[in-house]
Amino acid sequence: MDKGILKNVAINFFGLILPTFVSLVTVPSYIKLLGVERYGVISLVWTLIGYFGFLDLGMSMAAQNQISKARATNDASQSARVFWSAFWLNLVTGIVGGLLIYFGAFIYTAYFTKVSAELQHEVYRALPWLAVAIPIANVSWVFAGAINGAERFGVYNTNQTIGTFLFQLLPLGAAWLIAPTLQSVLAAAVVARILAAVLLARASLKVLNIRHIQLPQWGVAKGLFSFGGWMLIASVTSMVSDSLDRVMLGTGLGARFVTYYTVPQNLVTRLNMLPNALIRTLFPRLSAVEREHADALVRQSLEFLNAVFTPVAIVAILVLGPFLTVWVGSDLATASSPVGRILIVSVWLVGQASVTRILIQSQVNPARAAGIGLVELPFFAGALWFGIAHYGLVGAAVVVAVRALVDYGALLYLSAIRARPIWLDMLAHLVFLLAALYVASVVSNLATLAVVGIAMLGANVGWSITTTPALRNLARDLLLRLNVRNSA
After folding, report:
1. Less crowded by CB within 10 Å, the N or C end of the chain?
2. Residue 298: closest CA among 410, 420, 422
3. 275 with 355: CB under 8 angstroms?
4. What is the CB-side half-sphere exposure of residue 21 using CA atoms within 13 A?
5. pTM score, two decimals?
6. pLDDT per residue as tens digits for the range 243-274
7. pLDDT value of residue 238
8. For residue 149, is it within any domain?
9. Which spans are transmembrane here (predicted)?
10. Residue 228 lies in a domain
C-alpha cells in the first residue's frame, strides 16, 4: 500500500483517539460540577443535535467527493463552486433546523419532560444557544469535507483536536467560573463550536486557495443533492439498523437485558476507530482515481485491514471477559462476555464492508450502496425478532454478525471487483477469530489464556506476512530500517 496512505491512516487514527480520551477525562468533572440531572439534560441536548445531522443531507460527503475529483484534474474553480454551493445549502438547512429545534425543544420541555421548575427555566434560557448550534454544526461539516477532499488530513485533525479541547474545556470553565447552569454551559459550548468552525473555515479556504465568496450554482447544487441524497439514505438506514437490536431487546426481554447487551457493545464498538481511519483516508482518493487503480487500492486496503485488525480483535476477544469482570463485576460480565465477543467479530466484518461500500459510493453508484441497506432492513428486523425470541442476547449478537457478513458479501458483488481473493483472505482470518471465540469460551485460567493467545497472534501475523506480498515487503522494509538504526 502507498506509504502516503498509511501515513494518513495513522494521522486519522490518532485524530479519532484524542477526542475520545479528552471526553473520558472530562466527564467526571462535568458530573461533579453540574450534578447528575443537569449533565443528563446536556447529554440529551447533544444527542438531539446529533440526530439533526440529517440536515446535512449528505452535502459534506458529496462535497468531499466532488472536490476530490476537481483537484485530480487541477480544476480550482470547480472546487470553489462546489465548496460555496455546499456551504450555502447547509447554512440554509441549518437555520431551518435551528428554528425547528428551538420550538420543538420548547414544547417537549413544557409538556413531556419530568424535571424541576428551576431546571425547566434553565432549559428555556438555553434554547437560543441550542438553535444556534445547528447551523454552526452544519457548515462545519462542509469545511471538514472540503479539507478531507483535498486529503489534508493533518490539517483537519489538528483543527478538529483543537476544537474538541475547546468544546470540552470551555463549558467546564464556564460552569466553574460563571455558574453551573444549562445556559452558561451551552453558551460556552456553542462559543467553542463557533471558534472551531472558524478554524476549520480558515483552513478549508487556505487549502482550496479560495479568496472570494461565491453564490451557490444550481447545476453544482443539483449534483451535490443527487450524490448526497443517497449518502443520507445510507446513513439513516445504518443509524436505524445500528439501534434496532437494542430497541427489540428492550421490547422483547426488558431493560435489564439491554444493559447486558449495551455495556459490551459500547466497549467493543470503540475498536472501529482503525477501520474508520482507513475509510476516512480512502474515500477522497477513491473518488479521484480511475476504476482500475481504485480496485487495486481497495484490495490492498482490505489485506492491510485484515492483517492489522485481526490481531487486535483476537486480543479483544480473549481479554474481554476478564476485563468486564474487573470493570463491572462478575455477574454482569458472565451475561455480557459471550455477547461482546460475538460483537467484536461483527465490528471486524463491518470495517471490511465499509471499505467496499465506499468503493461503490465513489466509483459505481451511491444508490446501490443505499439500496442494499434498505432491502436488508426488514429481513434484519425479522431475523432479530427470531434470534431474540429463541436465543436471547446471544441470538441478537449472532444475527448482527451474520447481517454484517451478508452485507459484506452483497457489497462485494455489487462493487464488481474481483472478489475471490478478497473472500479467501477474509475467511482465513475469520477462522482465527472463530478459534479465539472458542478458546475464550472454554478457557478460564488467565495464564493458559495468555499462552494460547500469544500462539494465535503469532500464527495470524505469520499467515498475513506469508500470504500477502505487500505486507511482506512492508515488514522487510521495517526490519531493514531497524537494522540500519541499530548499526548507527
Report:
1. C
2. 422
3. yes
4. 7
5. 0.82
6. 888 888 888 887 778 878 888 888 888 888 88
7. 85
8. yes
9. 9-31, 43-62, 82-107, 127-150, 162-179, 185-203, 224-241, 304-327, 339-360, 422-440, 446-466
10. no
Give the three cell numbers for residue 46: 447533544
Give 187: exposed, middle or buried? Use CB within 10 Å, 0-12, 13-18, 19+.
buried
Alpha-carbon distance of 128 to 142, in angstroms, equals 23
Give dist(CA 254, CA 463) in Å, integer: 44
Residues 154 and 253 in one domain: no
**Residue range of the domain that includes 488:** 242-488
Are the CB atoms for 61 and 86 separated by under 8 Å? no
Residues 113 and 160 in one domain: yes
CB 261 within 8 A of CB 336: yes
For residues 123 and 109, the answer to whether their CB atoms sit within 8 Å is yes
Residue type, 310: T
How many Å apart are CA 419 and CA 446, to the nearest integer? 39
Q: Express each pLDDT in 266-298 by its tens digit.
A: 888 888 888 989 998 999 989 888 999 999 999
Amino acid at 422: I
What's the rounded mean pLDDT across residues 43-64?
Answer: 72
